[in-house]
Design a protein that fits this description.
four-stranded mixed sheet, 23% helix, 15% strand, elongated
Length: 141
């Protein structure tokens, strides 16, 4: 069995679609409800390093205190931003998926296919109806 972990928010459609694509590949991932069980500092730093993206790109704006806490302030260091994400886990963008093939912030949800190169078991459409996997199990988008 392939070990896959998803940092998941079940209230987020993108996160739900990503989880469904993982399961459509026949994998039952470890699901971490990061709002209830946030990663510790070292784990968050490792995730960001593995994704090879700037810390600010891991931060979510919509529905968070990002703007009111002025996180666009260039004086804030990466360590400052990580500390705020740990204090306010809602600031961590989602879903983050770890697989043997890589770690990725999966926005949009089909980006999970870049780090999950296993065949999809069935056609798949997002919750909004957008087709991602066709009848032959091929990626459409």
């Amino acid at each position: 069995m392939t070990q896959v972990t998803i940092y998941h928010n079940p209230k987020c459609g993108t996160s739900r679609n990503t989880l469904a694509l993982i399961r459509n590949a026949g994998i039952e991932p470890e699901v971490i409800l990061y709002l209830e069980t946030p990663p510790d500092r070292e784990t968050l730093k490792q995730l960001i390093a593995a994704m090879k993206i700037p810390v600010r790109d891991v931060m979510r704006r919509k529905g968070t205190p990002y703007d009111e806490l002025n996180f666009d302030n260039e004086d804030l260091t990466d360590d400052d931003l990580i500390a705020y994400m740990l204090e306010h886990p809602i600031l961590i963008n989602r879903p983050i998926v770890l697989t043997p093939w890589g770690t990725k912030l999966c926005r949009p949800s089909e980006l999970v296919l870049d780090v999950l190169p296993l065949p999809q078991k069935a056609p798949f459409s997002k919750e909004d109806g957008e087709v991602i996997i066709d009848e032959q199990g091929r990626r459409v988008k």
